[in-house]
Amino acid sequence: MSGTSQGQVIAASEGELAAVSYNSDGLVPAIVQDVTNGEVLMMAWMNAETLQLSLDEGRTVFWSRSRQEVWRKGETSGERQWIQSASYDCDGDTLLFKVRQEGDGACHTGQYSCFFRSFGSDQ
Q1: Nearest alpha-carbon partner for 56 in 91, 28, 27, 17
Q2: Largest alpha-carbon pair distance within the chain?
Q3: For 46, phi and psi rounded to 5 degrees?
Q4: What one-character-per-residue DSSP string does the chain give?
Q5: What is the pLDDT of residue 2?
Q6: What is the CATH number assigned to the segment(s) 2-101?
Q7: Opening angle at CA 70, ends 67 and 73, nearest 5
Q8: How many CB atoms lie within 10 A of CB 123?
Q9: What is the pLDDT at residue 121?
Q10: Quick one: which of 19, 12, 17, 45 has its CA closest to 30?
Q11: Residue whose C-alpha is closest to residue 31's, from 20, 43, 22, 23
């Protein structure tokens, strides 16, 4: 692992990359968590290309299902996510990125986390 000016470049082995299990659309869910406070910020989708780009660039890069294109988090908003560590679960079907969140937050609504709504709170 080596650093960029903001995030960590992670040299994953071929075996580690091969352990990732993609769905029928060639995608895997990626959970993004704040490395400082442990708060879950968001979930987005990655394909093999965007996973490799994320590891190479030290920042989160996702696959936009709606636009069908590569999406670098914060490219237009400035709300970049700088990777501090990356892991995959026991089944290889979910990724976890611990990041330093730049800007006001991860959610397109302006909230710090996409998980700001709770069930049972509309009472």
Answers
A1: 17
A2: 50
A3: -130, 150
A4: -EE-SSSEE----HHHHHT----TTS-EEEEEEETTT--EEEEEEE-HHHHHHHHHHTB-EEEETTTTEEEETTTTTS--EEEEEEEE-TTSS-EEEEEEEPSS-S-TTS-SSS----TT---
A5: 55
A6: 3.10.20.810
A7: 100
A8: 3
A9: 81
A10: 45
A11: 43
User: Which tokens sit at 69?
Assistant: 């294109």
The residue behind tokens 């636009």 is 67
pLDDT for 59: 97
> What's the pLDDT tens digit per position in 50-66?
999 999 999 999 999 99
Site of tokens 């730049």: 102
Distance between CA atoms of 99 and 101, rounded to whole angstroms? 6
Amino acid at the residue 73: K
In the prediction, which pLDDT does 122 show? 76
Low-confidence ranges of the chain (pLDDT < 50): none
Q: In the numeric block, which tokens belong to residue 117?
A: 């709504």
